[in-house]
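User: quick one, fold this
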Amino acid sequence: MQAVPSWSVTENATRIASSVSRDAIIISATKGIDEATGQRMSQLVGTALGRNDVGALSGPNLALEIAEGKPATTTVAHANESAAATVQSILNSSVFRVYTSSDLIGVELGGALKNIITIGAGFIDGHGLGNNSKSAFVTRGLAEITRLGVAMGARAETFAGLSGMGDLVTSCYSGLSRNRFVGQELAKGLSAAEIVAGMDQVAEGIKTTHAAVTVAESLGVDMPIARVTMAVLDGDLDPKSAIAGLMTRAPVSETESTH
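Assistant:
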């Protein structure tokens, strides 16, 4: 299992390729989408290792809480159910409950795309816009990332699980979330570059936002939240104007809405 920043996945996997047994079960725990290719992390690892059977682990897994031994759950996804079950048996414990899934695409994308929404949630908190707006934003954000996930081959129901809604809620409401921190700092008027320069950890949502918008455009998927988030991160749009723009779009039916 590997968990390194998304930008270094290929380099790290390439370095260890000669030492990885062909019988080893490979699981990626990095949450991101490659900005250059739009590929998921398991795809990058697979290419670097010459494997087509790389799985993923994702869920509401704040590292500090897990290190402190607090109860947590996660999902291991793998095309091979036996491989997923093996990893489950190794990692499962009284404080770390592991579920399995065959929807590798959905599990990976849930963990990656939720970081986009988390940045916006942090901005809402930073500006004190209230719980009504934040709950609405998180809910519509989940609908948005589910649309892209399905277009990329995931199952919609996966986004209602631990790696989707579970991870999204944790990230949007926890003070330990790095991407929520980015949103809060944007609310103070700092630029994305200034925020990144002052962080000693990686906020994957910044790069993932750009990658997701590119993939969404290629698939014809409307992602208004991701688009305005990218514009804010690039300095092309004031955060308050971004919220106003989302609120003043033409009203539509919730159940039939694609945007």
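User: anything notable?
Assistant: DSSP finds twelve helices and four strands in the chain.
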